[in-house]
Write a structure and sequence with these properties.
Layout (H helix, E strand, L loop, with lengths): L4 H21 L36 E6 L4 H13 L5 E4 L21 H19 L4 E6 L2 E3 L3 H17 L5 E3 L20 E5 L10 E4 L30 E4 L10 E5 H14 L5 H10 L11 E3 L3 E5 L2 E2 L13 E2 L3 E2 L10 H6 L13
Parallel strand pairs: 1-2, 1-3, 5-7
Antiparallel strand pairs: 3-9, 4-11, 6-9, 7-8, 8-10, 11-14, 12-13
Helix pairs in contact: 3-5
Length: 368
């Protein structure tokens, strides 16, 4: 006996509803900071792999923060920023370059590097070595002055969706975040199944000509006139695009600074071999870029990037000498605290976050 026709209609309607719900779930709402509860997200009941980004390690197996033990100011600031953001991490002790034995340095022209650069190189590689030794599937490595938007987790989800689409469509020149094609979801990491390093926090990078996913009307992005790189006078490459545009790229181009990056287990093994044992001739971030790009005839690695960056350096008010333990001392005075390129900064909104308030301060309001 055949089922009555209405059953087929009901089944079709139900299936259509499930498809609509799935597609709607793939785009996060990061339009306003008030839509996000930074410190009370419970992701453990979710089954979608993308929702792993909402857990306490942002979808990575581990988060490691490189920090000199004596910089208690930086450690306390990072502890607070991660606490109000529902993020868990472990410290990896920073290293003073004068404690690194010459016999441990790999070949290369490194005599011109100051002790501070040697120490930074070794501290970052200690973090990478821990990823390899503990066999973490992936890890986020950050420096202790990192800052981010109060909506970090939805923004990372947007990044993951964009990169996974770019990775699944290798011949794509440009994609639009609001109309990303349906592709196979990742199975091993919410950020995709094929990457070595995700360059998420930096001091600036270029835009390549292909392999780009544009997220327009991302209100976490300041107007282009406010965007800055390591060269404070450089005009952002996003100035020619509509306001509030963020771009995810299949391969980062000319990134500067190793403030925050994620590494896969595969990438960590290759990175440790190359930068710890094969060659040392430049500061760590410069060598990291060369490793990604495949300099000197080496194999290029898969290193997606994002612009503007999702993490940037927090700078407190007062003497700029405290900004860096690597660069030369700077006796200039900063009148007020700041974090470049981040509109609703966690650190600049710390008092409000601690009080449970939601009317966050925007350090880059739109021009009226």
């Amino acid at each position: 006996m055949k089922p009555p026709p209405w059953r087929y209609v009901a089944a079709a309607v139900a299936l259509f509803g499930l498809i609509v719900l799935f597609l709607a779930s793939q785009h996060s709402d990061s339009s306003e900071p008030g839509n996000v509860v930074p410190s009370t997200t419970n992701s453990h009941a979710r089954t979608d792999i993308l929702d792993d980004i909402y857990n306490t390690t942002l979808g990575f197996e581990k988060i490691l923060a490189v920090s000199l033990p004596e910089r208690t100011d930086r450690r306390d600031g990072l502890i607070l920023a991660t606490a109000v953001s529902d993020i868990e991490f472990d410290f990896v002790d920073g290293v003073h370059g004068d404690t690194v034995m010459d016999k441990t340095l790999p070949p290369g022209n490194h005599g011109h590097l100051p002790n501070s650069s040697i120490g930074s190189w070794r501290a970052h590689l200690n973090a990478v070595a821990e990823v390899v030794h503990k066999n973490y599937t992936s890890a986020l490595i950050m420096e202790d002055d990192a800052d981010w938007d109060v909506r970090l987790k939805p923004l990372l989800r947007d990044f993951a969706l964009s990169y996974n689409a770019l990775a699944r469509i290798p011949n794509a020149t440009t994609l639009d975040y609001d109309s990303l094609p349906l592709v196979q979801p990742p199975s091993t990491s919410p950020y995709g199944d094929d990457w070595d390093l995700l360059w998420l926090g930096h001091c600036g990078m270029h835009l390549p000509f292909h392999g780009l996913a544009f997220h327009h009307n991302d209100t976490s992005v300041p107007e282009a006139k406010h965007l800055r790189s390591w060269d404070i006078n450089e005009i952002s490459p996003l100035v020619t695009y509509p306001p509030h545009t963020r771009v995810v790229m299949r391969q980062a181009e000319m990134p500067v600074c190793s403030l925050v990056y994620a590494i896969s287990q595969r990438g960590a093994r290759k990175l440790l071999y190359s930068l710890s044992l094969q060659k040392l001739d430049s500061p760590y971030d410069v060598m990291l870029r060369a490793w990604c790009e495949g300099a000197d005839g080496k194999e290029a690695q898969l290193c997606p990037g994002v612009l503007p960056q999702l993490f940037d350096h927090y700078r407190r008010a007062g003497s700029k000498t405290v900004d860096s333990d690597i660069s030369e001392p700077n006796e200039e005075v900063r009148e007020k605290e700041e974090t470049l390129n981040i509109r609703w900064s966690v650190r600049l909104n710390m008092e409000k976050l601690l009080r449970g308030e939601r009317d966050y301060d925007n350090q880059y309001p739109d021009t009226l």
